[in-house]
Amino acid sequence: MTTMMNKITLPKPQNDGGKPLMEVLKKRRSGRKYSDKEFDLQTLSNMLWASFGINSERGGRTAPSSHNSQEIDLYIFLSSGVYRYNALDNTLEMLFDEDMRALTGTQLYVATAPIQIAFIGNKSKLVNKTPQEEVETVFLDSGFISQNLYLFCASFNLRCVVRLMFDKQMLHEKLRLSSDQEITVIQSIGYPVE
């Protein structure tokens, strides 16, 4: 496995449009069957912005975090490799140039879903919390981001499901995470099967 410092500059997110909220809530579902259609960079940019992008000039995000700690990192697993979403400059920073989607879960569909997003909490960004509160915080904040993804997918006729079934220790080691980092959940995303 090799690491690279490549970056993908995403197009500016289109943060208007979509379906009305009540319709989106009505359509929100978990989906586990995906076509193999790849995502274009504009859709990927829009989706990542909706999940945990910058939505104000002061650096606020589209999902809340405890004391605005913004301790969740999104690791994006694509066929071309593993990337970290950098919301500040709207880029994907390549971490590994290997298709590791199959390592993100025990279910068969994880290897072929076009996108897997791992939510990784960095507990070193949290202050004045007990170890138990740190765990609760990273899981709660991951939930906010995950719900944003669900709503985006419902609005744009995509499929997604959030998952806890993965080998956390193996993936932690494979991604070379620190002891302060914890993988909370993984979300599979793709286009529906025609």
- Quote the beta fraction: 15-25%
Number of helices: 4
Low-confidence stretches: none
- Give the fraction of residues assigned to helices: 25-40%
Order of helices and strands: EHHEEEEHEHE
Going by CATH, the homologous superfamily would be: NADH Oxidase
Give me the oligomer status. single chain
In order across it, which strands form the biggest sheet? 1-4-3-2-5-7-6
Task: Please write the CATH class name.
Answer: Alpha Beta
CATH 2nd-level architecture: 3-Layer(aba) Sandwich
How many domains? The number is 1
Which fold name corresponds to the CATH topology?
NADH Oxidase
Taking the sheet with the most strands, its summary is:
7 strands, antiparallel
> Mind telling me the C-alpha Rg?
16 Å
Care to count the β-strands?
A: 7
**CA-based shape:** globular
What does this structure look like?
The protein is 26% helix and 23% strand. It is an alpha+beta fold and 194 residues long. Strands 1-4-3-2-5-7-6 form a seven-stranded antiparallel sheet, with helices on both faces. Strand 2 and strand 3 (81-86) form a beta hairpin. It starts with 6 loop residues before the first strand and ends with a strand. The mean pLDDT is 92.
